[in-house]
Specification:
The complex is a heterodimer of chains A (429) and B (177). Chain A is mainly beta and 429 residues long. Chain A has helices spanning 25-29, 142-145, 176-180, 193-200, 225-230, 395-399; strands spanning 14-16, 20-21, 78-79, 92-93, 112-113, 127-132, 137-141, 151-158, 183-192, 208-213, 220-224, 234-239, 242-243, 253-255, 268-274, 289-290, 296-298, 306-311, 322-331, 337-343, 351-352, 354-355, 365-373, 378-386, 415-418, 424-427. Chain B is globular, with a radius of gyration of 21 Å. Chain B has 177 residues and is mainly alpha-helical.
Chain lengths: 429, 177
């Protein structure tokens, strides 16, 4: 409950070891704080001149606005999965989490995972079929789908292989986005899948959907019918207000809030109602979790509760001791984020972060907490809890049941070691 | 006590309809399964969906060399896109090796994947006979079937993959994952 306007904050505002301060203190203090990644401002301002942009008219309007050229470093780092020249277009690119604020992912920065590149689909020629165990086999054009009642829902889509680098034996020195950025959060608008299934008339023996894309890989997954009906499944046509980008499945994709991104099939062309799962390549050889006992978990659809501190993080560094705002993202396929704790002493003590209000279930939540860094080496961690009571595990606890190299559904606590010189490194702690 | 599935479904759809400002449009165009034949690549583990045709590992050798070897190696045991052979029995070791032979539970899944997505540069270009042959070749390289074992819609589903019982379904979830 400090009201002092000078540092350091009073003892009762210290919430946990390593300089974590009560989440309500900063707003009351009115103090300026350090900015990660920038050198400290000059102590005394020089005389302020008139910049050229204030002396001449600027540019005119544009058809589709672009970010400032000064933000050209904010882009998706790509990762090829094979030798150069082999299936180059079938890799991933990461949402640069550490370069963004708030909770929404801009469409041009939303992560990508393609299994046979991005098809260039003419919406006038695209068809979407529902068939199999239904009373009426139906084909929809994009034009017709756009005439259906729609719903809007904000949720994340996370690749089941997100954070895979933290499954490796040695911690990789990559940015927060390059480790945890196979996730994006968006407002999706489209037709409830249940509406179209109702129109087709589902047979009673149907239990699963075989969902398939129109890309050259014809990416396909089995989805339980029960979830498609009860779990807010959407045939999404719009992302953040505009039509889907080609790399996100234009003209339509399936969105299953909180479930593996791989199941949110892009370039959706077909759903067949069947009695049993198909055991496709992407639900057997991939996206299954091999345990130490040699058995593999299959159909682990829901993404676990997770969080990551984006500031500070590798490349987003404090510029000297002082007051900073620790900030990051938390999410869970199980529902709303109800609690995020932060530790600045490697997990010995924890303080509750402030969660920005307004994030719904299966959506990214932004958390923040003031941190008074004394300039000594510190290990920062965040630990999220969701409304079902699931708590983000330590890396050791997460890995315990799994075979070496198991990398799917990696939702362990991320530790960042801040060195005395401000450098931030990925560590296993 | 027990609510029939259809009732639940009706209730769910009804709640969506009530919540939305207008009713469903019924704009879907009715088609037959035959109309969708070129698209319907769904292959079930009981063999449903497998096409007519057949092939052996012996005939599959040339299909492999022409279409697959560049990425997966001359004998399917390594290349820029990885090996499809070996690792059988390694899943409980300290360094598990996951391949078609050691990990995939169903031979039908292999057929399904090759048919829908391979060869990478030209998926859909192999005839059904060539598909059976190249699938036979991969199974044979893993020593799961003999050189002259004929793979067709009936025999493929009966192939006993080494890791057939290696998977535990988490739907509905036995544990929170």
């Amino acid at each position: 409950m400090a009201s002092s306007k000078s540092l350091p904050p009073s003892q009762e505002s210290i919430e946990a070891g390593g300089g974590l301060i009560n989440r309500r203190w900063l707003m009351k203090s009115g103090l300026a704080i350090g900015t990660f990644g920038l050198t400290a401002g000059a102590a005394r301002a020089e005389q302020i001149g008139v910049p050229e942009w204030s002396s001449t008219p600027g540019k005119g309007m544009s058809g589709y606005g672009q970010p400032s050229p000064f933000e050209s470093d904010v882009s998706r780092p790509a990762l090829k999965l094979f030798t150069d020249g082999i299936a180059d277009e079938s890799g991933v690119s990461f949402t640069p989490l550490e370069k963004l604020a708030g909770t929404m992912t801009p469409n041009g920065l939303f992560f990508e995972r393609h299994h046979s590149g991005i098809p260039e689909i003419d919406p006038a020629k695209h068809k979407f079929a529902i068939h199999g165990l239904v009373k009426r086999r139906l084909v929809f054009s994009v034009e017709n789908l756009l005439r259906y009642p729609m719903v809007t829902r904000t949720c994340f889509i996370e690749c089941a292989g997100n954070s895979l680098f933290n499954s490796l034996a040695e911690p990789q020195q990559r940015s927060a986005g390059e480790i945890h950025g196979l996730i994006g959060n968006a407002e999706w608008t489209g037709v409830p899948l249940a509406l179209l299934l109702e129109e087709a008339g589902v047979d009673v023996e149907a239990k699963w959907l075989h969902v398939e894309g129109a890309d050259a890989a014809k990416m396909s997954r089995s989805v339980p019918l029960k979830q498609a009906l009860a779990g807010d499944a959407i045939i999404a046509l719009y992302q953040n207000g505009e039509r889907l980008r080609p790399e996100q499945g234009y003209p339509m994709r399936l969105v299953l809030p909180g479930w593996q991104g791989n199941m949110c099939v892009k370039w959706l062309r077909r759903i067949k109602l069947v009695t049993k799962p198909l055991h496709t390549k992407d639900e057997t050889s991939k996206y299954t979790l091999l345990q130490k006992d040699g058995k593999a978990r299959q159909f682990t659809f829901e993404m676990g509760v997770k969080s990551v501190i984006t500031a500070p993080s590798p490349g987003v560094t404090p510029s000297g001791k002082g007051l900073y705002q620790v900030s990051g993202l938390a999410w869970s396929g199980g529902g709303r984020i109800t609690r995020v704790e932060i530790s600045a002493d490697g997990g010995t003590s924890w303080a509750d972060a402030h969660i920005n209000p307004g994030s719904g279930p299966q959506a990214l939540a932004r958390f923040r907490l003031p941190w008074l860094w004394d300039g000594s080496p510190r290990t920062l961690m965040s630990r999220a809890t969701d409304e079902t009571g699931s708590v983000q595990p330590t890396r050791e606890a997460w890995y315990r049941p799994f075979a070496a190299g198991q990398l799917f559904h990696q939702n362990a606590i991320q530790a960042w070691a801040v060195a005395a010189n401000g450098e931030v490194r990925n560590v296993y702690a | 006590m027990f609510m029939p599935r259809t009732l639940i479904r009706i209730a769910v759809v009804a709640s969506i309809l009530i919540a939305l400002p207008v009713n469903a449009q019924d704009l879907g165009q009715q088609v037959t399964e035959d109309d969708l034949a070129l698209w319907d690549l769904t292959t079930e583990s009981n063999g449903t969906g497998l096409p007519p045709g057949s092939g052996t590992a012996r005939t599959g050798q040339s299909v492999w060399s022409e279409n697959c070897a560049a990425c997966h190696g001359a004998k399917a045991d390594g290349g820029p896109a990885g090996s499809l052979v070996g690792g059988i029995g390694s899943l409980t070791s300290a360094a598990p090796v996951k391949t078609v032979g050691s990990y995939w539970p169903y031979a039908t899944s292999l057929f399904d994947y090759v048919r829908r997505a391979m060869p990478y540069q030209d998926p859909g270009s192999l005839s059904d006979d060539e598909l059976y042959a190249v699938v036979a070749y991969i199974l044979n390289r893993n020593e799961i079937i003999d050189d002259d074992a004929v793979m067709n819609a009936k025999s493929l589903k009966d192939v006993k993959m080494p890791n057939r019982n290696g998977f535990v379904s988490y739907w509905p979830s036995p544990l929170k994952n």
